[in-house]
Amino acid sequence: MARHGKKFVEAAKLVDRAQLYSPTEAIDLLKKVSYTKFDNTVEVHFHLGVDPRHADQQVRSTVLLPAGLGKTVRILVFAEGDGARLAEQAGADFVGLDDMIAKIQGGWLDFDMAIATPQVMGKVGRLGRILGTRGLMPNPKAGTIVQPDDLPRAIKEARQGRVEFKVDKTGNLHVPIGKISFTPEQIFDNLSALVEAVNRAKPSGAKGIYVKRLTLTATMAPGIRLDPLQASLMKSVAA
Question: Where in the sequence is the domain holding 111, given as residue range(s)?
Answer without folding.
Answer: 75-160
